Please model this.
Amino acid sequence: MTCVVDPTYIQPVEYRAKPPVPVAENTPIIDFSLLSSETVDPEAKAKLAKEVGAALRDWGFFHCINHCVSREIMDRVRENLALFFHQPLEEKLKVKRDLNNPVGYNNTDHTKNTRDWVEVYDYMLRDPVEVPASHDPEDKDIMLLRNQRPAFPPGFQDVVHEYGQYLEKLGFQILELVALDLGLPEDRFEPLFDNHASINRLNHYDPCPAPDLVLGKGWHSDISALTLLAQGVPTGLEIRGLDNEWIKAKSIPYSMTIQNGDLMEAFTNGLYRSVEHRVVVSGESEMYSSALAIVPAHHVTVEPLPELINEQHPSKYVGFNYGKFFMVRRLSNYKKLDHDNVRVHNFKKSA
Model:
């Protein structure tokens, strides 16, 4: 039989999506309209925090509606993504990212050593951002990352920058709610995310002639504390559920899907688990999405918050430097590895 896609895209049999995958009808949907008020009642905010906490503990994610990210900016971003990604490849490659500057355009991302059926444009919410010069633990040098700015469409970088400001506000609102759920002051995470290095990824998935053989994004957990995902319609997001089976995420226009990442699992000493997910592709429709990874500055040590540790609840994770974690994780985007990429589970202490 003739292969209809480049073999580098073909997933190992055990990783391929096996339809039908059920839609998760009972997954949590949380209304954030309360936070749009000029003054927020503390009791109502505490109740909202418990909703968010229950969702992130029990499911690892939730769908956020009536949030602070305007529909108008979400529509403008979608229009600009279509214009940018539909350019000739040689134009997009003018802002291609590489090992020296891991922000910009790429169409050769790999997950678990298999190429993803996706093209992406990554940019940082803050520009420039300091990161380690290499993943070598002994290398103390620092380098500056700067966003690459596409020439087309005109004003593209301004639109995505404005979008990023909305996302940043929502992300810090959620961090406040997480802190309250944990019984901590709402500003507990602020010092950890001061001068944060958060990156927003803009995704485009073309229709695929062999959707049963490939994945838009192979299964993984995120490098972030939280990921704020704006799904398009249609969506290909699937999440590993409580029973270890895959479930298809709901597609709710203008919602945000909020997911725990590896850093949140470590910060909360395992109370909030990092959720595994993947993206399946369509044989007929193209798809767009954006995913903001909320991450700290490079020098932050990621470890369980000391307020959560006591004799009954000892620390379950060894502390690690976020910057080096980022530099190691990004290697798999550019080359095949002879081992699984690093995840938070690599820092879990033996029982």
